[in-house]
Design goal:
Elements: H1 5-10, H2 20-29, E1 31-35, E2 40-42, E3 50-56, E4 59-64, E5 70-76, E6 81-82, E7 96-99, E8 103-109, H3 110-119, H4 121-147, H5 150-160, E9 167-169, H6 174-180, H7 185-197, E10 201-204, E11 208-211, H8 213-221
Antiparallel strand pairs: 1-8, 2-7, 3-6, 3-8, 4-5, 4-7, 9-11, 10-11
């Protein structure tokens, strides 16, 4: 599959403002890597030698507990970076990552990237901004998992993904959704029933949900 490397790199906010010479340097080090649905990009605890720029598809970053339960920490899509967190310390990946569907990425070797970045300090400043936003999302996730019950977490998940009419498109299975909000399918089924009972959910199919905006506003106002 042919990928226009320069355009793919410029679609990433980290590299969008680089000059042609720096972009050419990056093009020389990146490697095209493709993955099948469910295939793992890297495992938690493995040495982090590089990171990925997603050009087409989605990646789930997750952690697994001793009991086999998973917590999905984040989902990345086109133009976003994945696996860059341990880059500067030469450490290991703090979580695992897998392809949600067919996936096309550009793999960027860490040591080669740092050689280029040291010549272009703006890249390092942009990466600091990216990591700061990532940290804020993880802080919100930890707060949600530790302080809010499952029904509240599900409500917030649906609210954040709804359009102006209250429609939510479900792009994952019940098991995947449970992993995203830190619970199990049986518990999330009970939470769905509660939200239908109170009227927060007006209608529900396998792949769509319709929220009652008036009920939602009443809940938010409390």
């Amino acid at each position: 599959m042919k990928i226009e490397l320069k355009n793919a790199l410029k679609d990433c906010e980290l590299f969008a403002d680089l000059n042609d010479e720096s972009l050419a340097d990056l093009q020389d080090i990146v490697k095209l890597r493709m993955f099948q649905p469910g295939e793992v990009l890297f495992w938690r605890g493995k040495k982090a030698d590089g990171f990925y720029l997603i050009t087409d598809g989605e990646v789930e970053v997750f952690c697994s507990g001793e009991n086999g339960r998973e917590q999905i920490l984040h989902t990345f899509s086109d133009g976003e970076l994945c696996g860059e967190v341990p880059l500067f310390e030469g450490g290991v990946y703090p979580a695992s990552a897998r392809a949600r569907g067919e996936l096309i990425t550009l793999y960027i070797p860490g040591s080669d990237f740092l050689d280029i970045a040291y010549e272009n300090p703006q890249i390092l400043l942009e990466m600091l901004a990216v990591l700061s936003r990532r940290l804020k999302k993880f802080v919100n996730l930890v707060e949600s998992l530790s302080l809010k019950d499952v029904t509240t977490r599900l409500m917030n998940y649906l609210r954040n993904r709804s359009d102006d009419a209250g429609k939510v498109v479900l792009d994952c299975s019940k098991a995947e959704l449970a992993a995203r909000i830190g619970t199990v399918p049986e518990t999330i089924s009970r939470s769905f029933r509660k939200l239908r009972t109170v009227g927060f959910i007006l209608a529900q199919t396998d792949d769509e949900i319709l929220l009652d905006r008036e009920i939602d506003e009443l809940i938010l106002s409390k």
